[in-house]
Amino acid sequence: MLRTRVIPCLLLKNESLVKTVKFKEYNYIGDPVNTVRIFNELEVDELMFLDIFASKEGSSINFKILKDIANECFMPLSYGGNIKSLDDAKKIFKIGFEKVVINSNAFDNLKLIEEISKYFGAQSIVGSIDIKQSFFGGQKVYSHHGKKKQSIGIVEWAIQLEKAGVGELLITSVDKEGSWDGYDVELIKSITHSVQVPVIANGGCGAVEHIGEVVKKANASACAVGSMVVYQKKGAGVLVSFPGKKALEEVLR
Amino acid sequence: MGNLGSIKNMFKYIGVESKIESDLDKIKNASKILLPGVGSFDTAMKKINESGLKEVLNEKALKEQVPVLGICLGMQLLTNSSEEGILDGLGWVDAKTMSFKSVIDKKYRIPHMGWNIVSESNESKLTDGFKDFDETRFYFVHSYFVKVENEKNSILKTDYGLKFDSAIQKDNIFGAQFHPEKSHKFGMNIFKNFAKI
To answer: Of A96, A168, A197, which has the smallest distance from its Cβ to B6's Cβ?
Structure first.
C-alpha cells in the first residue's frame, strides 16, 4: 500500500527561506540550501518550494537557487511561483525538479496547465488553490498569495483544474496557515469528494495527529507541513526537523 | 518525470561519470546505457524508431551485451507492448505493459504516485545490499505497470491494488519502474550497483 506523503512546504523570499502566518509575517528561517541539506539527511518524502514573492509581485523565477537546491536533493521536488509558460516549466524540470505548482497564473490562462500536462504528463503538475474566509459570505478562492479574490467556487475550480490536466491538487487554508491547530478537514473533504486526483492538504499542521486526522477523515493523499518542521514548537526558535517514522505510522494506522 | 537533470546529479554525487547523449556515434561507445523515459510509450518508441537509435540500442544491448537500465517509461520500453500505445516495444524482456485503470479497484488513485515498498522476487546484482535496510522503499509515478511473462525476470515486486513487477532483469538488461534518482539512499544503492555491474 502507498505511504501517505508528508511534504515540507518551504517558502522562498528572494534568497531566503521564510515562514508565514496566514500568508503574512515573513519570519526568517534560514538559507535554503543549508535547510534542504538537513531535510535530505532526514530522508523526507518530498519537498515543495513556493516563491511567494514571485507570485505576489510577479517577479521572475530564481533559477539559480532552484539549481542549488536540486543539486543537493535526491527526493521529489516541486516548485511554484510565477510559472508563466511551458518554457518556464521546461527549465525547471531540466534543473532537476519534477513538479511545477501553478496557482495564480491559471486564472487568466488555464491553457498553461493543459500545455504542461500534455508535454510532461499530469503527474508533473500540481494545481494549487488558496482558500480564505472572506469578510462577507464564507470561504473563497484567492490568488496572488491571498491578495486577489476570485469569483469562482472552490469545488468548481478544483474540478476545472483537474479537467485541464493537473495530476494533484494542493489545497491551502490561508486562515489555518501557521496556526498549528490542525488542517481544515471539512474543506479538504469537500475537495477529495469531488475529484479523482490526489489531494495534498496544506495549512495548520502542528502535530502528527493532525496528519492522521486529515488523512482518515478527509481522505487526503498527502500532507504539506510548514511551521512544524521549521520551528521547535509554536512561538519558539528555528529548528529543522521531521516527524519520526514510528510516530507517523502510529497516527496513520 | 524521467528527469535527466536529477539522474545526472545523483551519478555525480556517487562519483560516477555520466553523459546525456543523443548523438548515435557517441552512444555506440557507451560502456553502459541508462534509458530514462519522457512522455508516452508511442512518442518514445516513435523517436527511437525514427532516429536510428533502435539499431544502435539493439546492437549494444543484444550483441555487445552492455548493461542497460531502463527507468520508469524506460523500463516499459523494454517490454513487448503497452496498453498506452499501439507501437511495439523494444521487446528485450518478455513482458507486457498494462494499464492500472482497467484492473485495479477504483479506490486506488491513478497515477500510482508516492513512496511504496518493494519486496525481492529474485536475486539480482541491481538490488545488492537491500538486506541492510529494514524496509526498502522507492518513489513511484506511473499509470501503467509491467507484468513479466516469466517470473524469473522479476526482481522486485510492489503492491498497489495488485502485485506488479517494480524491477525486472534479463541478463544484462535491467528495468526499474520507480525513480532511483528521487529515492535518496535507496536509489543511490541502485545506481551504485548498476555502476559496478
So the answer is: A96
User: Tens of pLDDT along A91-102?
Assistant: 998 888 989 999
The pTM of this model reads: 0.85
Percentage, residues of chain A above pLDDT 70: 99
**Chain A residues close to B4, C-beta within 8 Å:** 94
Euclidean distance between CA atoms A88 and A61, whole angstroms: 8
A84–B contact, CB cutoff 8 A: no
Domain that includes residue A103, residue range: 5-252
Average pLDDT over residues A24-52: 92
- Catalytic residue, chosen from A130, A175, A181, A184, is A130
Percent with pLDDT over 90 in chain A: 81
Question: Which range is least confidently modeled, A17-26, A156-165, A177-186?
Answer: A17-26
Residue ranges per domain, chain B? Answer: 4-196
Contacts of B98 (CB under 8 A, 6+ apart): B82, B83, B144, B145, B146, B147
Distance between CA A226 and CA A110 in Å, rounded? 28
Q: Predicted ipTM?
A: 0.77
The CATH number of residue A11's host domain is 3.20.20.70
Q: Which residues pair with B140 in a beta bridge?
A: B114
Residue A45 · residue B114 · CB < 8 Å = yes
The listed CATH number (3.40.50.720, 1.10.10.10, 3.40.50.880, 3.40.50.1980) that belongs to domain B4-196: 3.40.50.880
Number of domains within chain A: 1
